[in-house]
Write a structure and sequence with these properties.
31% helix, binds 4-amino-1,4-dioxobutan-2-aminium adenosine-5'-monophosphate, binds magnesium ion, alpha+beta, BirA Bifunctional Protein, domain 2, 2 domains, 477 residues, OB fold (Dihydrolipoamide Acetyltransferase, E2P), five-stranded mixed β-barrel
Amino acid sequence: MKTYTVNELLKGEQLLQQVKVNGWIRTFRSNRFIALNDGSTLNNIQCVVDFEDTPEDTLKKLNTGAAVCIEGTLVESQGKGQKYEVQVERIEVLGTSDPETYPIQPKKHSLEFLREKAHLRVRTNTFSAVMRVRSALSFAIHQYFRDNGFYYVHTPVITGSDAEGAGEMFRVSTLDAKNPPLTEDGKVDFKEDFFGKETNLTVSGQLEAEAYAMALGKVYTFGPTFRAENSNTSRHLAEFWMIEPEVAFLDLMGNMDLAEDFIKSVIRYVLDHCREDLEFLEQRLLQEEKGKPQNERSEMSLIEKLHFVLDNNFKRVSYTEAIEILKRSKPNKKKKFQYIIEEWGADLQSEHERYLVEKHFNAPVILFDYPAKIKAFYMRMNEDGNTVRAMDILFPGIGEIVGGSQREERLDVLKERVAALGIPEEELWWYLDLRKFGTAVHSGFGLGFERLVLFVTGMTNIRDVIPFPRTPQNAEF
Ligand code: 4AD
Ligand code: MG
């Protein structure tokens, strides 16, 4: 007998045939109806047990959470709520589940409660929907780059260069933490360490991706990145996944076009392929928003919001214009912002970014040409000597989703920037080499994968869109 997934059976193609299906019991009611789920779809298949034919002992084990193997006939359902069901002929309980202690009961659990049960929460509709969408998005990302002539590059997770400056790093070391070897002046002697130098988990694959773009032309990385920032927010993880394309002979405007086309393409993919899950998540969001005051509810449903992104051009606004808008804004004048914008050069906080996106433009925004002093050393200096060709993409409800730039390709200018920031040139010798041998205009960006998943699923806490989140004081699983 052939084994089918629930998703396959629900299509009804095996009508009146003998089928086999494995899954977990979501509910068992009236000693007769099993709602079976196997993760292949949001939906359950109803399996009807004839209790007179089923041993008492087996019936007792048909509890929520138990794993079962069912054989039977696929028939049209007489009851409402489903088109097809399985008339059970044989049922085997593969793994029991104690109803007294199984945490995932068939009722609404809070997301906070489920975070404590990260190993089981994917058995709920919400988390299984989120994780299927996450998987589809990740596939769509690879497909987009493949279709557009990019090569996938695996940049290292352990890095010896800590010059990127994107955030605090996690040290990688095999030295004895209690009793490390010391140098003459009492500092930890990393020459004795595994790699003979200080190493860390990477905060970004960009610098290495640049090296590859300068040979393969168009490349991207898609891997885990690590930041030891102590930011306990709903937008920050200590371990997150980042997609970083890097393209030779591409300038900042081309970079913006690429980012916009890329984001739209992956959103289109999930709209086309994850309809059921998105509709479920849309309903979930609606329920959640009912608990909020009217003025905090979003005007658009989840799917409308995704279409809105597809159908509209991202607004491209220079940092300088953005500062003017912010200075004149109501929350700035009424001192409602926590950080009041007084002058050009201020770093934008997420309250400012969200004002621009959600109140002023009401659309995704690409901010570009930032002051050099608030951006990384590798960004291309503009002719004004003050601003760099940086771009951040800001999304409603999320804030910054992409950070990128045209890179400084001129050796002398790059060296000046490195020196001004006090970064020893030796640390970047290989990166500087890229400007000595066949340098060219090039650009790239980093998209925070979980922030994209947040946007697409309508979830509100980044801890709920990655299987096992790592945040300060939290690495249980
Ligand atoms: O703006 P960031 O720091 O840019 C870079 O790392 C560049 N090297 C990228 C490049 O040009 N290749 O980070 C890029 C994106 C952010 O826009 C945000 O979406 C996400 O990564 N991000 C985080 N996501 C979750 N948790 C964190 N702690 C994040 N920090 C950044
Ligand atoms: Mg950034």
